[in-house]
Structures are given as structure tokens and as C-alpha cells.
From TrEMBL:
InterPro entries: RNA_pol_sigma-70-like (IPR039425), RNA_pol_sigma-70_dom (IPR014284), RNA_pol_sigma70_bacteroid (IPR014327), RNA_pol_sigma70_r2 (IPR007627), RNA_pol_sigma70_r4_t2 (IPR013249), RNA_pol_sigma_r2 (IPR013325), RNA_pol_sigma_r3/r4-like (IPR013324), WH-like_DNA-bd_sf (IPR036388). NCBIfam families: Sig70_bacteroi1, sigma70-ECF. Belongs to the sigma-70 factor family. ECF subfamily. It comes from the Bacteria. One of its GO terms (molecular function) is DNA binding. This is RNA polymerase sigma-70 factor. It comes from Ancylomarina euxinus.
Length: 191
């Protein structure tokens, strides 16, 4: 398949065409992704994931633009999602540090922060599977409710309900740990 054929409106997505696109565009897409991510290894992994996703959905996929345009748009969307996920993770990490009362890195405070993070992740893992998966996609991966609904093929309202259930369960389960953290902070500031 030539570049000109790959740039025409695509009718057929199959293993052969995906392999040809991979051979033709992989390196170019890695360079393109690296402009967003500034991390070549992560860029390569992300482009690989785009091709794996393309392969997994080849039977149901209908591309109305050129293969090249579709691939570049898919890589761009994946890069933006990755950046959003990193920002969301950093924000949650900062919130946990804030809950511990200080930004200094003394040993006791690091231990308290790690303990609270452990409790949070343990509580998340104890959620029912569907609830846990939706919560992680929203709060850790940074996907919005509509993106999750589209990905899981469920209604947006179902996503909202599951996130609400997860937050309620986490509040109930983490209340003792948060109270302990607050009390330790108050006691340490009474010197």
C-alpha cells in the first residue's frame, strides 16, 4: 500500500492494512507523540497502544477520513488523555499531602502520607468491580463521564451513579483514617 492509497478514504480495516500502517507511520507517530509528552519511551508505548486498540476494534471500526489522519488524531487524543491522567494523579497526590497538614518532608509526615495513600488505594480496591473500574477511570485516569460511558457502552447516568456510590463508600471507609490524620496534625501543632 502506498502513502497515496493510505491517505484515501478507508473502507477496509484488516490485519494487513494495520500492519502496513504500522510499518509506514509508527516512527512518525512516535515523533508526533513525543512533541506532546516529551518522553520518547512513553510516546512509543502510547503509539503501540493506539495500534493495539485499532487491531482490537478492527471489525467494528469505520474510518471516514484517511488512515493517516485517523492515526494522527488517535495519537493526539491518547497523548492528551495521558497528560490529563498525569495531572489528575499529581493533583490527588497534592491533595493527600495537603490533608496531612504540611508540605515538608519529615519522616513522620511522609509515613502519614504513605499510610493515608495506602488506605485510600486499599479502599478503592475493595469497591465492587464495576464501581471500582468506573471510579478509577474517572478519578485516576482522568476520563470524563461521557468518555467512560462511551468506552464501557453504558449510559452517562450509570457512570454518575457508580461514581456517587464509590465516593459515598470511600467517605464511610476512610472517615476513621482521616480523623486520625487530622488529630495527629492537631496534636503535633500544639507544641
Amino acid at each position: 500500500m502506498t502513502h497515496q492509497q493510505a491517505n484515501q478514504t478507508l473502507v477496509l480495516v484488516n490485519e494487513t492494512s494495520i500492519e502496513q500502517w504500522y510499518t509506514t507511520y509508527y516512527s512518525l507517530l512516535c515523533v508526533y507523540a513525543n512533541k506532546f509528552l516529551k518522553d520518547l519511551d512513553l510516546s512509543r508505548e502510547l503509539v503501540q497502544d493506539v495500534f493495539v486498540n485499532l487491531y482490537d476494534k478492527k471489525e467494528a471500526l469505520s474510518i471516514h477520513t484517511s488512515a493517516k489522519s485517523h492515526l494522527y488524531q488517535s495519537v493526539k487524543n491518547a497523548c492528551l488523555s495521558s497528560i490529563k491522567q498525569k495531572q489528575t494523579y499529581a493533583l490527588h497526590h497534592e491533595n493527600i499531602k495537603y490533608l496531612n497538614g504540611d508540605y515538608s518532608y519529615e519522616t513522620d509526615e511522609l509515613y502519614g502520607q504513605s499510610e493515608l495513600e495506602y488506605e485510600l488505594y486499599k479502599a478503592i480496591e475493595e469497591l465492587p468491580k464495576k464501581c471500582r473500574d468506573i471510579f478509577k477511570m474517572n478519578r485516576i485516569e482522568g476520563l470524563n463521564n461521557q468518555e467512560i460511558a462511551d468506552y464501557l457502552n453504558i449510559s452517562k447516568r450509570t457512570v454518575e451513579t457508580q461514581i456517587s456510590k464509590a465516593l459515598k463508600a470511600l467517605r464511610n471507609q476512610l472517615a476513621p483514617s482521616l480523623l486520625k490524620t487530622i488529630l495527629l496534625f492537631l496534636l503535633s501543632s500544639i507544641e
